[in-house]
Specification:
This protein is of the alpha/beta class. Helices cover 46% and strands 10% of the residues. It has 9 helices and 8 strands. Strands 1-4-5-8 form a 4-stranded parallel beta sheet, with helices on both faces. Strands 2-3 form a two-stranded parallel ribbon. This is Lipase, GDSL.
């Protein structure tokens, strides 16, 4: 892992943890002591291949941020450590015992997308991970009783969602020849709508605390550098990297739409806490 990547992760971790602590302080200091488990939904930003079938044989190099340092190097792991929570084990590594489920589960999968991808069943979508989360809720209700399980979900869990990167990678890769045009902006709104639906489904299952991650500038990723105007130099101008600004603009719009929607959801779901 190069120094730039490590520095970026460090900055992101500081922002997320600082905001999270502020959220807790502004609502109820006792909330921190009640937080017992983190449940993670997302893509390669939260999974190093442990939840992905045939990884890395079929999906190698699809991740924008490879896990050079193993699972302990990814942001949700660092966040869990910072706030004193056990790091969730991968969904496909757990045995279904109540003790394990109560410690949190990582449902994230490398290459996962918000939109379902019927052409590649290996990749898990947001909806598939939601179904797995609901399975966990049902198991907890069977073992603990519905009231106890719902109280645990509502007062003691944090849900961390990090999606969208792989949706854009697929989109820009398939539209690189003709240019993304207005379709990319439409995609941004559709993706945010899907994320909103996910929040409402989880809220309906008693989840009240959410952390959302935006997408880092994809236009500066090596795979997209040849799409810059200076394509003959492979995205470099002298010693300087020239990013694909159009791609970064569309990703920025997604982040803006998502942040605006989260602000609205905080008002609509007034007993929930959502941070971006």
């Amino acid at each position: 892992m190069n120094r730039r990547t490590m520095r970026m992760k460090s900055v992101l971790l500081h922002i997320v943890t600082t905001t999270f602590i502020q959220m807790v302080n502004s609502s109820n200091m006792a909330t921190m002591s009640k937080m017992k488990a983190m449940y993670i939904l997302g893509d390669s930003s939260v999974d190093c291949g442990e939840n992905t079938l045939f990884f890395p044989f079929l999906l190698n190099n699809l991740s924008l941020h490879p896990c050079d340092g193993g699972p302990s190097s990814i942001l949700p792991h660092l966040l869990a450590k910072r706030i004193g929570l056990p790091y969730p084990i991968p969904f496909y590594s757990q045995n279904g015992s109540t003790e394990v489920l109560l410690r949190g589960i990582n449902l994230g999968s490398t290459g996962a997308t918000i939109m379902s991808n019927p052409t590649n069943p290996v990749l898990q979508s947001l909806n598939q991970q939601l179904r797995q989360a609901f399975e966990i809720f049902q198991l907890l209700q069977l073992e603990l009783g519905q009231e106890t399980a719902n109280d645990f979900i509502q007062s003691s869990t944090l849900f961390y969602l990090s999606f969208g990167k792989d949706d854009y990678i697929d989109f820009f890769r398939s539209n690189s020849a003709k240019g993304p045009g207005s379709d990319a902006e439409k995609l941004s709104r559709v993706l945010v709508d899907q994320m909103t639906n996910a929040v409402q489904y989880l809220y309906g299952s008693s989840v009240r605390k959410f952390v959302f991650m935006g997408i880092l500038p994809l236009g500066c990723a090596p795979r997209f550098l040849p799409l810059t105007n200076d394509s003959g130099s492979g995205g470099h101008r002298g010693n300087r990297v020239v990013c694909a600004d159009e791609i970064n603009d569309f990703v920025s719009k997604y982040n803006t739409y998502l942040e605006q929607r989260i602000v609205s959801l905080n008002v609509e779901l007034n007993d929930a806490e959502l941070i971006f």
